[in-house]
Structure formats: C-alpha cells, structure tokens
Amino acid sequence: MSAKPVIYLKDYAPPSYLIETIDLKFELEETQTHVFSTLRVKRNPDAVVSTELELHGHESLQLRSIKLNGQPLESSAYHRETESLLISDLPDAFELEIETEINPKENTALEGLYLSDGMYCTQCEAEGFRRITFYPDRPDVMATFTTTLVADQKAYPILLSNGNPVEKGVLDDGRHWVKWQDPFLKPAYLFALVAGDLACLEDHFTTQSGRKVTLQIFAESKDLEKLDHAMTALKNSMRWDEQVYGREYDLDIYMIVAVDFFNMGAMENKGLNIFNTSCVLAHPRTTTDMGFQRVESVVAHEYFHNWSGNRVTCRDWFQLSLKEGFTVFRDQCFSADMHSAVVQRVDEVGILRTAQFAEDAGPMAHPVRPASFIEISNFYTLTVYEKGAAVVRMLHTLLGPETFRKGSDLYFERHDGQAVTTDDFVQAMADVSGRDLTQFKRWYSQAGTPRLTVTDRYDAAAQRYELTVKQSCPATPESKQKQPFHMPISVGLLRADGTSFVLAEGGTSMLLELTDAEQTFIFEKIDEQPLPSLLRNFSAPVKLSYPYTDEQLAFLLSHDEDGFNRWDAGQQLALRLINQLIDDYQQQKDLALPEHFLATWRLLIKEAPQDPAMAALLMTLPSEAYISELAEQIDPIAIHQVRQFIKRELASKLANLWLELYQQHDTDVAYSAEPKEMARRSLRNLCLGYLMAVDNPAHLALAEQQFETADNMTDQFAALVNLAHSEFNDSAHTALDSFLTQWQHESLVMNQWLMVQATDPKPGALMRVMQLLDHPVYDPRNPNKIRSVIGAFCNQNAVNFHAEDGSGYRFLADHILKLDAQNPQIAARLLTPLTRWKRYTPNRQAMMQAQLQRIMDSGKLSGDVYEVVSKSL
Ligand code: TRP
Ligand code: ZN
Questions:
Q1: Do the strands 464-472 and 518-523 form a parallel or antiparallel pair, or are they unpaired?
Q2: Whose CA is nearest to atom 10 of ligand 1?
Q3: Which of 52, 486, 500, 747 could form a disulfide with 508 if both were Cys (CB 3.0 to 4.6 A apart)?
Q4: Residue 2: how many CB atoms within 10 A of its CB?
C-alpha cells in the first residue's frame, strides 16, 4: 500500500563509507538553485559488511553531474532509486563531486531548502538534507562542512551558514558570496543556510573561560523591536548551562534567524538556529505572558542542544529521545529556575498527563525509543519529548543531583564528537553511580502509561505504617505483556495537624524505589495514623490511585507541603465532582453543586492574594482534554456542559468575591514582565473568566474596558477571548473587528485572532471557521495559520469538532487530503484527533473511522499520512 518500507531498529548497521569533509557551494536562484558538493570519502573500517556507497537523494533532486576523483562517472557505475543513489566498485578513499539542481520556490513541504516570505532557509532534521544534495543523510555520518553561498546582493544582503564566516567577495554580475566554515563534526541534519534581507540584534556573551561570543538574532526589519526578550533568554541559557552542567559554548558566533514558514517550533542547527517567528519574537504589546515564556523556553531548548544533540548526537533516529528527552528535561529545569518551580511543574505535568497519556493510549503509542517506523517525522512526539524528559528526570531523582551531574559530565566527555544511543546515556549514569540500571531501561523499550494502585495499613500498637504499591501497564501496539518498571516514588506522611512526619535521613519526603509488580514499604515509629502524600512533584509518569476520601483530598489541598500535590489534590477533588455530574447529565438529572465544594472555593479565593500564581493554578478547573483522557468513554458534549455548569455556579454563587479579587489585582503600574506581575495578571484574568461566565452587563462592561485600555497583549487578549466566547455578549464581533483593525499587520497577533474564533465553543463555529479560511489574513501554505484555524478547531473546540452530525470530522478529512500533497508533515500531525476514535461514543467512533477510511482510500498518500492512518484503522 505504501511506497515506503518499515524501518527497524534491529536492522541498524554502521555505514559502509564515511565522509571526512563536505565542501558545498550554493548558487541561489528561486526556481533553479545549483548545489555543488565535493565529498572526501573513505571506507568505514567499522562497517560490518562493506557494500556500495549509498547516497540519499529525494526524487525532486536533479542530478546535473557526478565525478569520481575528477573524472566524470559513467552512468553504468551508479544507479538511482527513488530515494537514493548507489555507487559500486569504489576505492578505499576518493573524492566525489556532485552537482544538483533544486527548486526552492516550489518546495511547499518546508523540508530541505525553501523560501519563507522571500527569504531562503533550510530545515534538514530529520531527513531534509537529501532534498538538497545526494549525501549519506544519516546521523552517524559526521563530517566537517564548508559552505559557500552565492546570491543576488540586493535581494539577499545577508548570507549565513554554520560555523564562522571565513571569506567573502562580490561578483561583477550583482551577486556576492560568503564562505562559512564549521570546525565541528556534524551530521547533515544540523546543516543550515539562510539568505535574505534581514535586520539583526547583536549582543555579546563572555563564557566562563573568558571567551567572547557574538550573539546575533535576525528577523525582518519590522520585527527588530521584538528581539530583546529572546536575547535575554539566550544569555540566561548560556549562563545556566555553565553553572548547572559546566557546559560552555564552543564557536565565536551564535546566530538565530526568525522565519514565518516553519513546520515546528525551532531547530538547533550548529551555530545557526532557525526559529518559527512564534518562538522568538516577543513584545509586551503583541505577545502574551504565555508567549513570552514559550520564547524563553524554546530559545533555551535550542541552545542546550549545542551539547545535548550537537556535540553528542544520535546514532540513528530511533535514538531521537537521547537528544530530545534530555534537552526537554534541561529546558524544564531552566524554566523552573527562572520562574516559579511549582507553576512550571504543573504546566509540564499537564502536557504529559493529557496529551502524552492520550498518545500512549492510542494507536500511535510507541516506546520512548521506538523499535520501528515508516516516517521518522511522525515520531517527533510527546512520548519522545515529554515522556523522554520524564525518564531523564527519574534518573536525576534516583541518583540525586550530584551523581546525575557526574553522569552527564562523563557522558559528554566520553562521547564528545560521537553519534550514540540511549543505552550509552544510561551507561554513563550507571558507571558514575555504581548502580545497575538494566531494569530502568525498560522505560525506553516499553510503551504505555503504568498504573499504580496504592493501599495502606496502620498498626497503632506497633507504630508501624505500611504502603503497598501494585504496578501494571496496559497493552500497547508493540507489546501485550509488560515487565515491571523501576521508578522513584516520592512520598510524605501527614499528621492530623497538617505537618509532615520526619522520615529517613531527616527529611519530610522520602524516596521509595519501586521495582516489583507488588511491593510493600514499611515506616516505623509512626505515632499516629498518617495521611500519605504520594508521588510528590510527580516523581514518575504514571497514573496513581489511592482511596482518598473527599475530606482527605481537601486536607492535602490545604496542608501538603508539596506544592504540586496540593494542586493535584484540588484537581482530583474537582474531577470527582465532574465525573459525578457527567453521570447526572447523561441520566438527564438536574445538576447541583454541593455546598462543601463552594466552601473550598471560598477559602481558595480568600487565600489567593498570598500566592497569586499558585491561586490561579488551584482555581483552574481540570481541562476538557484532561477530563477526556481520564474518561472511560468520551462524551465531549457532557464534559463541556458539566465543566461550564460548575464554572457558572462558582461564578454566580461567588460573584462578589471574584469581583473583589479582580479589583484587588488591578494596577496603575505600567506593564512589566516580572514573574510577580505575570502572576498578578494570570489571577486577575482568571477572575475575569469567572465574572464573564454569568449574564451580567456590569461584568461585560468590565471586560470591554479591559479590552480597550490594556497596555499589553496578555490583558487585551484575555478580554478578547472572554468577549468573543461569551454566551451573553451580543456584540462579540465588535471586539473581534476592532482587534483585527488594530493588529492586522502583525502576523503573530492575527494567529491569535484566528485561534479565538476557531476555539469558540458556541454553535456555528465550523461555519465561521470555514469563512476564516477565505479571510485575507489566512494563508493556506503557512503552518502557523493552518495550526491556528484547523488545528485549533479540531484540538481545542471539542463540542464543535465532535458535533453529532460528523461535520467536524468531514471538515478535517477534507483538509488533510488537500494538505497532504503540499506538506505531509503538517497533514500527518493534524490527523491526531481522528486517530483517537476508539475513545469516543459509538456513533462518533463510526463517523471518525469512516473519515479515516476515506483518507486511506483516496489513492496516493505520503508516507507520513499513510503511516498514521494505517496504524489507526
Ligand atoms: N530538533 C527540533 C527541536 O526539537 C525539532 C524540529 C524542528 C523538527 N524542525 C523540525 C523535527 C522539522 C522534524 C521536522 O528542537
Ligand atoms: Zn529539541
């Protein structure tokens, strides 16, 4: 059915040939760019079987000429297959010269060399370099690169590539050239070039050893004022990596370029990161606080890759989490250090528990180190990134920070300049700790979310407390039977007065190491019946259950010293109510909010001013996505209605308290991006959300006033969302129109404007979404626009996407079929909500499946979409 074969980890073999150096010259022309590549090749002494030389090359490459040691190669000496060029009968060492022609303008897949708004840029991870020239496009082939760019000087004054600029010149036909040299070995996926008319913000950083590094961030000149935040984030990241990991930057220059057309968030190309504008541009007037934090964390993430990814890279793409899991863990710790650690932890666990757990429960479930794939682009997943980070975090927890640091030092030192595996990473941790991590490695090979069932027993006479933990893991596509995992479970025991028992080593938290299917842990000298606080700070990526009473959860919510578990207790309490009301709703009973729930919230509101950031978290109801993930069978309408009911009840019964809290957190002080101010805004906008959940003209006026007078996007946008989504606002369009008029020239703000409308839960959203696709600010080729409209509608507007008539499913399938020919990576990613069909009510299952089948039957599909659809049906 698919043209592309399944690739297996077990079939890995080292390459037959190695590339020592690659010398590239690009003559950049929009429709016919010429790429001249000179390779110094030698036979790989470590190759198991020595076969022909395999150069990958996409079918779109036009081979212009090929020479071996200066002599044209006869056409009988090589043959071309769809994805490669094979050359046999080669000497042990030789030089190969290849000229290819490519068409950047027609490149809508945004892999390889393409044009983004008239600027040339590249995206080579994972397998984009084969769309540029013939080359062994696999990460275990590492070479030093020299790159010369030739282009029209007026249109493309800035010419960038990896490493350092070493030579430049002007030609007499109006073109100019720059030659770049990257002294570090790298695989082809880290290659990059940029050519365009760009403005630049420049700064400097002095490393811990005293070297001065030039920092440059490039963007279109209109966006120059939006680069300060990314620059600050970059300098903070560089400092943090020196302090926490002892890692110093290694080139004289570090460049970031912002591009508007980009399939993902950003890319860590050596010395020349390329960023989606959405992950680098930030300005208080146009960017929300959430946007600011995203920029900071993505800048950090790509910077940290310089060591975890570039200096030490992956042997093959099955090892992707080697760099991604570790780097996400690093950027999470960085963000925790820059802001509130609890807020950061709640945010990251939220992603893991909703989206990654859902992935683990779906047809695309795979281990952190997958065993097979058809299209590697489909494996840039929450499992590889977020669960991969959780696995590294568990190593950090099990070994402790000092030993973990010794392990990372050993890993970087031992493997600098190499392409290695997740086993090599764990081995470094095993070597420094003297521990056997064999069982721990099951986290890399077994998919699925483990379930822990905890029970306890207290013996007052013996002053002994016992916790019994049972673990199991549901079957996933790659394996039915799972072996027990090795995991750290951080626990505390609370006394009736709310304080925690002092446990082993004098601390109030203790680490239990679970290794067996069932295990009992004993605590001695426990002189009163304790209440356990389990899995503190979410010490393992699992689903845990313990038979708490509502009162016990409320007790943890007010007393647990672990901020994460306080929050989680509140979520569990709310979830119990939600699930009960969903039952009532489905049985068409009247819904009612119990008095004790209101009492809890009164208390939360009263205490909110003490810690606004925490309060905003505690008073946010579990998301529809999280409720869905936990549901046995998802009924999106019931979930939405019940959640809205609770919100409305809390809003109307506590209206004066919300208003008071809202006004208390108003300010005359000008905007600042300080964490304290961000927390204030988030609490105040949470209040606005509750105020707007009831039909009250005074509240509407408040939102309108905030919308008109806000001096920053966080407040203006929060007001807009509330005005646009309100059931009680007849003039939602007024706010939307005025926002459009104000910001129509700001592309990123327009993404937000599109998104508010796409996520509007009111009836008729699909019609409006379809109209948006014809709006002048929409661009069907720009992934950010596609995500803002189609992605947002299908992923964040459950009531409308899952409409009973199947219109949402048909809409998505229509667009996937259109998109697949244009941009397979984006098409495959958009498919996700349809792949979850088994989780929904029977009528929905049938309609979702029918749309998947329709895509399958449509004929020619990309490997990307084929893999996702075939695994889902
Ligand atoms: N390595 C990039 C990151 O996580 C991911 C990435 C950027 C990517 N662009 C891509 C992956 C295109 C696949 C395709 O930081
Ligand atoms: Zn990454």
A1: antiparallel
A2: 264
A3: 500
A4: 15
Domain ranges of the chain: 1-197, 451-559, 573-872
Distance CA 372, CA 409 (A): 31
Determine the distance separating the centroid of ligand 2 and the alpha carbon of 73, expressed in angstroms. Answer: 39
Catalytic residues: 302
**Is 573-872 the same fold as 1-197?**
no
Six-digit token pair at 805?
Answer: 């008539």
| Listed residue (588, 571, 704) closest to 627, CA to CA | 571
Which listed CATH number (2.60.40.10, 1.10.10.10, 3.40.50.1780, 2.60.40.1840) goes with 451-559?
Answer: 2.60.40.1840
The pLDDT-based confidence of 48 (bands split at 50, 70, 90) is confident
pLDDT exceeds cutoff 60 at 509: yes
What CA–CA distance (Å, rounded) separates 460 from 526? 8
pLDDT in tens, 397-448: 999 999 999 999 999 999 999 999 999 999 999 999 999 999 999 999 999 9
- Burial of residue 688 (CB within 10 Å: 0-12, 13-18, 19+) is buried
Ligand 1 binding pocket, CB closer than 6 Å: 123, 125-126, 263-264, 266-268, 301-302, 324, 377, 380
For atom 1 of ligand 1, the residue with the nearest CA is: 267
- 1-197: CATH superfamily: tricorn interacting facor f3 domain (2.60.40.1730)
SS3 content of the chain, % helix, strand, coil (to 5): 45, 20, 35
Nearest ligand to residue 275 Cα: 1
Burial class of residue 115 in the structure, from the number of CB atoms within 10 Å of its CB (0-12 exposed, 13-18 middle, 19+ buried): buried
Q: Give Cβ neighbours of residue 599 (< 8 Å, ≥ 6 apart).
A: none
Which of 189, 257, 263, 319 best tests ligand 1's pocket when mutated (most atoms within 8 Å of CB)?
A: 263
Question: 351: buried, middle or exposed (CB in 10 Å: 19+, 13-18, 0-12)?
Answer: middle
CA distance 380 to 140: 19
pTM: 0.98
Q: Indicate the top mutation candidate among 125, 130, 307 to test ligand 1's pocket, ranked by most ligand atoms within 8 A of CB.
A: 125
Token pair 């079939």 is found at: 11
> In terms of CATH, what superfamily is 573-872?
Peptidase M1, alanyl aminopeptidase, C-terminal domain (1.25.50.10)
Ligand 1 nearest-atom number relative to CA 301: 15
555-573: average pLDDT:
97
The residue whose CB lies within 8 Å of the most ligand 1 atoms, and thus the one to mutate among 257, 264, 305, 381, is: 264
> What digits encode the pLDDT tens for the residues 761-794?
999 999 999 999 999 999 999 999 999 999 999 9
Provide CB contacts within 8 A for 583, sequence distance 6+: none
d(CA 222, CA 488): 50
Separation CA 143–CA 160 (nearest Å): 19
Contact 809, 851 (CB under 8 A): yes
Measured CA to CA, the distance from residue 722 to residue 367 in angstroms comes to 40
- What is the average per-residue pLDDT within 189-210? 98
Q: Find the 455 Cα to ligand 2 centroid distance in Å.
A: 39
- Protein residue with its CA nearest to atom 7 in ligand 1: 267
Query: Could you give the dihedral angle defined by the CA atoms of residues 792, 793, 795 and 801, in that order, rounded to the nearest 10 degrees?
Result: 180
